[in-house]
Input
Amino acid sequence: MRAAVLISGSGTNLQAFIDRTQAGELDLDLCLVLSNKPDAAGLERARNAGIEVECVEHRDYPAREDFDAALVATLDRYHPDLVILAGFMRILTPVFIDHFAGAILNIHPSLLPKYPGLDTHQRALDAGDKWHGSTVHFVTEELDGGPPVIQGRVPVKAGDTATTLAARVLTVEHRIYPEAAALYAAGRLEYRDGHAWLDDQILDKPLQYT
Ligand code: GRF
Output
């Protein structure tokens, strides 16, 4: 199965995918890493791993739909079966989402449905949450609202800042995201009729990783 990974930044989740595939633990052909930022550090990770890279700069496209059409045109040249959003910091429109319907995964740094959107770590701290974490979900038109697949929880510790909490969340992301992709690659996980399905059963609640 061919997978394209979309990034905007450091790409530690991308690195987790690279490491797991190189170790033979994840049966995915990482056919492309695409960034909307030419200086994204994750592009270097991809080059070091010998993966094709592309950059489509959102600033070149005043309208979101035009940017999304350019993303689709670039991705289509690589024929991905799965699109993995890994710290891709652009909101996608139906132009993109409908094209890859049911074949887009995202990771969001909160225990969805809590804290869609930005600043999730600070919001968890401000709310006094005891637990925080991250969620892998299928992408639908609702921002951070598609059916969740797997969640990883981490404790919020005394003295945590958004930075220390983000680092703890990242370590769990690096476990759960390749795991979700492995289920998809094995044909066990799919998106159908607005639901995530695992082994032909609707996933009522996400798998939990602790
Ligand atoms: C992760 O926390 C992810 O949940 C969010 O963006 C961050 C990406 O980190 N969507 P990295 O670029 O993979 O290091």
The radius of gyration is 16 Å. The CA atoms of residues 136 and 177 lie 6 Å apart. Residues 7, 9-14, 42, 86-87, 107-109, 134, 170, 173 surround 5-O-phosphono-beta-D-ribofuranosylamine (CB under 6 Å). The helical segments are 12-22, 41-48, 64-76, 94-97, 120-126, 162-185.
